[in-house]
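pipeline: protein-struct stage 2 | run 1193 | ABC transporter family substrate-binding protein
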Amino acid sequence: MAVAVTAALAMVAGCSVTPPPPVVGTVPPVPSAPAAKPGEIVVGVDSIAGGYNPHVLADQSTITTALSTMLLPSVFRTAPDGSPQLDRTLMVSADVTNNSPYTVTYRLRGDAAWSDSAPIAAEDFLYLREQMRDEPGGVDSAGYRQITDIKSEESGKVVQVTFASTYPGWRSLFSNLLPAHLLKDAPGGWDQVLESSFPATAGPFSIKQVDAARGEIVLERNERYWEQPALADRVILRRADQAGLTDALRTGHDQLVVARTDAGGVTMLQALGERVTVKAAPRPSVVSLFFRPSGTDFADERVRTALINLIDRDEVIKVGTGGGPSVRADSLVLAPSQAGYAPTGAPVHNAAAGQELLTQAGFSLVSGVWTREGRPLSVTLGAPADKEPYLQVAKEVQRQLVAAGVQVKLLTPIADQLMRSSGTEAGPNILVAPRPVGDNPAAVMASVYGCTTGTNDASTVLPGNVAGFCDMSLQPTIDSALNGSRPLTEAIGIVEPRLWRQAVALPLFQSADSVAARAELTTGDLTAPLNAPFASAVTWQRKQN
């Protein structure tokens, strides 16, 4: 085709007929996005997909962290050093006022109110506690289950919370309060809470528009906010791919980028030079594989251990991170970004050991497939279809296990459906899911690996326990870390070796975003723990040239 075109052009050039002048400007270029206006800050993100409920595992994402941090009130916020700090934009005080029974008294500011003018009050505390205690797939359900009673005083502005026993982790509770007066009787219940937007907000910003088709969420300064108003008129969260994000940052269409990137994306951002600061900000989640110890095959610890040995974890991590800023995780409780983190014994890839364990469990390799009594070893592998990098990780795990002789069926429902079914008999054998990272690791340990307190039924697990795992012999140690009678490090030293041996979870990496800011944008700490960089959004400001 190229030769024919060249020949045709040569023939035209040899003729005496003068070619017509070229047509200019018939298709004007269309800009990828409008430039930011004065008083407006545009943040480039990789996704704006809902839901946006910060309290459920299914919704854990950068966009959820961004919106909950800027729109919802919290009793405590995580300080730059990782410690909980009382948020005085909402609170007057929060103190332990009785040790028997263990009671915490919360005093809210009288002027703190939702954007529809309803006061932030005790009913918001009660609503959140009830949902976290009872609903599956929650984050930090163990902490809320310690509460035995919530009482309202002074028109709901004083909240008395009573616990079953001493609970030193109480400061981690009641973050990102939700408007109970609008949600408690809402159609769809907890399943639909913050599915696509926020019915009311109580932060420095409010939602003006969520445009899924354009990939844009527009936040405006909340004129009803009772505290220091946001310096920016608007914050726009705008979706683009890696190349688009880099280009928008280079041209000044975006002032900030907070997005999951691979090695190529990091290189593109760094190539922008001194005018852009590029850092890595860890997300509050560790991408993990959970092996549910139920069913004929998976109830056998040898089978679960064999599958872990057959998986080349290094290769899965490589595929999942893409060489981006996410960090390998080698602990079952603490994340790499947390104080005290240290590798605790993650297994290495050992195909021969995996094959030996399957043989001991009664399986034989027949025509390249592991079978027992004429039945192939078949695994269901679940990953959310609407969240990355979970689907990428699942496909790599599937590829490896199939190559090793294991039949694998990949299930990819939406995240909420998958997480709600994960701890039940209908759930997958292996789940690719986030393990929460919070400022109360004891509660994370109890939620992810704990049984329901006060029962001897090993099938009764906490709603946040997505593996459906319960070892009653470990529960006293888990409970002792939760109530502070045993140091966390000591409890981890007892619990983690047992968890590794029982092969119920395999951590892969702590997700992290690339955070890139233009020089004219004044921000706070770009890598503050758990909610970076959005915790300082109220003070974001563009320098005017």
